[in-house]
TrEMBL record:
Claim: Hydrolase is one of the keywords in the record: yes
Gene3D superfamilies tied to this protein: Ribonuclease H-like superfamily/Ribonuclease H
Binding positions (Mg(2+) 2): E68
Catalytic reaction annotation: Endonucleolytic cleavage at a junction such as a reciprocal single-stranded crossover between two homologous DNA duplexes (Holliday junction)
The record's free-text note on cofactor binding: Binds 2 Mg(2+) ion per subunit.
Classification via SUPFAM superfamilies: Ribonuclease H-like
GO annotations of cellular component type: cytoplasm; Holliday junction resolvase complex
Role of this protein: The RuvA-RuvB-RuvC complex processes Holliday junction (HJ) DNA during genetic recombination and DNA repair. Endonuclease that resolves HJ intermediates. Cleaves cruciform DNA by making single-stranded nicks across the HJ at symmetrical positions within the homologous arms, yielding a 5'-phosphate and a 3'-hydroxyl group; requires a central core of homology in the junction. The consensus cleavage sequence is 5'-(A/T)TT(C/G)-3'. Cleavage occurs on the 3'-side of the TT dinucleotide at the point of strand exchange.
Subunit record text: Homodimer which binds Holliday junction (HJ) DNA. The HJ becomes 2-fold symmetrical on binding to RuvC with unstacked arms; it has a different conformation from HJ DNA in complex with RuvA. In the full resolvosome a probable DNA-RuvA(4)-RuvB(12)-RuvC(2) complex forms which resolves the HJ.
Protein name per UniProt: Crossover junction endodeoxyribonuclease RuvC
Residues where Mg(2+) 1 binds: D7, D141
Cofactor(s), by name: Mg(2+)
Keywords, comma-separated and alphabetical: Cytoplasm, DNA damage, DNA recombination, DNA repair, DNA-binding, Endonuclease, Hydrolase, Magnesium, Metal-binding, Nuclease
Length: 182
């Protein structure tokens, strides 16, 4: 499975592609940060993010997209930009019909470090360890995007199988006519 992780942000939008499956070594395909200037109008910044994400989807053709779930912070200007960038990420993935998963920061921290309260340096160190890198991807937005992709591979695939099993169990049983042996 190939997953594009997106850590949404209006100034820095982290993107990272990881490939692998549960129980197998994961591979970092690429990682970067899409940057926009605070001097530009918000609409233009969102277009820049959209074009950047479209380019990543074209180049890496992921099987799924994992986006950090936006949560409320005390600074409303930060949350607005993050929410707007998140919306763009959801739209570009949905437009292509890709499966989309939203993971909270604490889910990602727990999946990667074992603790939902881990600090950013701990997340980066574990990302480097999991992917056998010399150093964590930098800046932290890039590392967070990769951590999202890892989380989705480890948790998202299992969740999709559980959802499919629940859906199958809720469908009426199929009956087949008995054959008489003729």
């Amino acid at each position: 499975m190939r997953v594009l992780g997106i850590d949404p942000g209006l100034t820095r939008c982290g993107v990272g592609v990881v490939e692998g499956s549960v129980g197998r070594p994961l591979t970092l395909i690429d990682v970067n940060v899409l940057r926009t200037s605070a001097d530009q109008p918000v609409a233009q910044r969102l277009v820049t993010i959209e074009k950047g994400l479209d380019a990543w989807l074209d180049e890496f053709e992921p099987d799924a997209v994992a986006v950090e779930r936006v949560f409320a912070r005390s600074d409303s200007s930060t949350i607005m930009g993050t929410a707007q960038a998140s919306g763009i990420a959801l739209v570009v993935a949905a437009r292509r019909g890709l499966p989309i998963a939203l993971h909270t920061p604490s889910e990602v921290k727990a999946a990667v470090t074992g603790s939902g309260r881990a600090a950013k340096p701990q997340v980066g160190a574990m990302v480097a360890r999991i992917l056998r890198l010399d150093a964590p991807p930098s800046p932290a937005d890039a590392s967070d995007a990769v951590a999202l992709a890892i989380t989705h591979i480890w948790r998202g695939g299992a969740q999709a199988r559980l959802d499919a099993a629940v859906a199958a169990a809720s469908r009426p049983a199929r009956t087949t006519p008995m054959r008489t042996g003729r």
